């Protein structure tokens, strides 16, 4: 049909390659909610080719991770007003695990006047990127994705356990960078590569991390919105690959006791639009004021942003001394004990790594919050502390340790609120407070074991 031919012609090459010689059956129209879950509609391809937009209620952004609702609708009340969702065809990519020929397309959310919905995560990230561009800067990021492959767990009362490997033994911990450990998950990893290839994604590498069944995927550096899209897609891709092999992929920050947690380390650099050069490096290759101000911004503003980088009560179980996650905001060169690390690189590749973000954060919001902290540092010319030398775990903790404290800092930061958007911060805070209150009503096994007969 002509409509389908017209649609195919505007798709990116990766989607065209997937459909070569095949008939497109269905299109999944999706958008990320606050947790980063894909919301949307699946429509027949012929219908999608004829439509320029579709509708979803704005209440999808008021929903907690448990499916409850935060009272974030505003003064007009909970009327579930429709948003207009418009496709970004550059994001069209395969859904290669489906039984038919299906594409996924990420959509952007607008109100009826054509204004971006301010609490849609992709719009929040775009808002921050646009602030950089107004200063003549192009931000560049490279996320690292850590996750666990675990045994199927359908009973929340039972502890999460590592998956069974090819050898028939549970995945073993403390085998970081072991190729033998990676081989244990070979069939799952093969499907991850196959799905990524079908979707046109380039994986920079897969390694075994320090946890039992814990892997890391590195993505190539690039545009923040494009990379957030890829992390959003990758989470679904990895889950689907795991399900094919009778296991679960989890992006919880801390799924297993006594194992390290999963991070989404974010590497940052900035290109000067006028020169095309790395703004963190001067003409002779030295470190610029912008480089130090970016670090200073992370140190000053990250405590207020932790509620976005660590969005659940489980997130704070990751920040454990000597357990592969930072506990403070020291910065150092080539030192993985600090919260802010400067990797080894030549001047053109100079970058700053934020090691605080958990893999459970929404990639759009996590990258937006991290960039916002660096932006405030550069605009306010914040100087960092002296470079740290030694083991940063010997230092004091200076990040929030519980969700309630993190939300207090988030709500009190006027500067961060202005960068991310007042309406976003209002909605996000209400939804997260609701989740936190839900959690506080739950009586844990620890409480029953130790308090029932002893207090």
Plain-language structure description:
- It is a single chain.
- With 455 residues, the protein is an alpha+beta fold.
- It folds into 2 domains: 2-117, Glutamine synthetase, N-terminal domain (Ubiquitin-like (UB roll), Roll); 127-450, Creatine Kinase, Chain A, domain 2.
- Helix content is 34%, strand content 18%.
- Strands 7, 8, 9, 10, 11, 12, 13 and 14 form an 8-stranded mixed beta sheet that branches. Strands 1, 2, 3, 4, 5 and 6 form a 6-stranded mixed beta sheet that branches.
- A hairpin with a 5-residue loop joins strand 1 and strand 2 (38-44).
- Helix 6 (186-199) crosses helix 7 (224-243).
- The model has no long low-confidence stretch (mean pLDDT 92).
Q: Topology, please?
A:
Elements: H1 2-9, H2 13-19, E1 26-32, E2 38-44, H3 45-50, E3 54-57, E4 82-87, E5 93-94, E6 102-110, H4 121-134, E7 137-151, H5 179-184, H6 186-199, E8 203-208, E9 214-219, H7 224-243, E10 247-250, E11 266-272, H8 289-309, E12 331-333, E13 340-342, E14 352-354, H9 363-379, H10 403-412, H11 414-420, H12 422-440, H13 445-451
Parallel strand pairs: 1-6, 12-13
Antiparallel strand pairs: 1-2, 3-4, 4-6, 5-6, 7-9, 7-10, 7-11, 8-9, 11-14, 13-14
